Please model this.
Amino acid sequence: MPKGMASVTTFSLMLQFLFFILCSSFGQLSLAFTSQEYHEALEKSILFFEGQRSGKLPSNQQQTWRGDSGLSDGSSYHVDLVGGYYDAGDNVKFGLPMAFTTTLLAWSVIEFGSSMQDQLENARAAIRWSTDYLLKAATTTPDTLYVQVGEPNMDHRCWERAEDMDTPRNVYKVSATNPGSDVAAETAAALAASSIVFRDSDPSYSSKLLQAAIKVFNFADRYRGSYSDSLNSVVCPFYCSYSGYHDELLWGASWIYKASGINTYIQYIQSNGHILGADDDGYTFSWDDKRPGTKILLSKEFLEENSEEFQLYKAHADNYICSLMSGTPGFQAQYTRGGLLYKGSESNLQYVTSTSFLLLTYAKYLNTNGGNVVRCGTSAVTGENLVTLAKAQVDYILGNNPTKMSYMVGFGERYPKHIHHRGSSLPSIHAHTQHISCNDGFQFFHSASPNPNILVGAIVGGPDNNDNFSDDRHNYQQSEPATYINAPFVGALAYFSANPPTTY
Model:
């Protein structure tokens, strides 16, 4: 038996045994979802973004309970900021999570677009709705990036439809004197990743995105600072940059290199990597912390070229994977009794979807390049092991869990009906044409009735650490959807729609 084979086999059997016990506890020992069901979930996960659209809606809008909104955004500041996405259940356009959402949607298409079939164009449309807005935000004024529309404290005191909102539509920006390297570098990453998506289908648009990415990255790097310091109470505590801006600078440079192939960005990564977090292990991938994603993205260079300059990133990517694998020396993740990765009480599924995407992406990189493995002490973790763990998380979200509830709205027989989302919970503008004011909307917020408008495809915050879920509008920690929960799930669902396992 070749060296290392015993540890691979032992770990694989152990993982399969644990997975067997997990499935037994759910009473399901056969395939939970078919390829068609994964594809249905994929379609709905993309359709969700239509319900988050701001601006003038197109004629092919499928979430028809929505109407036009935010049509004068930016006008009082003499800038066009119409469009983009509302981040979650409110009516504010936050630049940092919007840009991260866009990067992850683009990465989903880059890695798994070939598996999306008839949904590829819908995925591109979801990306373009954001990039059209980000282009305006990034290129309108020199050395300026518009990063937010809407006064969040006022917005959060109201419960009203986006079509009715009468709260201040203040515009916030970062500049040379008030820097925001985190939000600017994430915007650069979003534009660069998206330029790869449109490279073949719309070369001129792709070029425009890449040039804007380079410009906004240079701005982020030249004027360094955190946007949380510059904008303070209008971004904190909503999307405060807790991890700082170093991770975004490395992330942004990595995506521009991927999109452009310009060696200047390799040199930047080499020269600045140690300062910007290349030596740090990160175990949570989110709109705030990009370290695990960057390590996995750059590890592809090592796997493809066996390049010594990227060896560090492969080592840290392996550390991240080992942290998720029960029974290995590096294990430090927490899972519920039902098998769900658990990171925090507020919107936990954002970490589950982002982790699942990274697991599948890294499995692809490992398998594409000679069947490489991840070394966790004496254990060797294969790409197949990563897929198995990712599938457990994806299936949990879709309904293979102790509550037998799908956490994707509109998927399956049982899903959340009282989600924390203004547009979903208030009567549609088409059904109730009269204006519903800031305070009058709370009668619908406090109502025990199900939401009248189904936000198809929305993934909510999810259950607690005991696998319990409260389908309650008041419990925003569990019942609020967000764009950055859905974005990485698009890629994961695309993978399984084309590669459904035959058995547990």
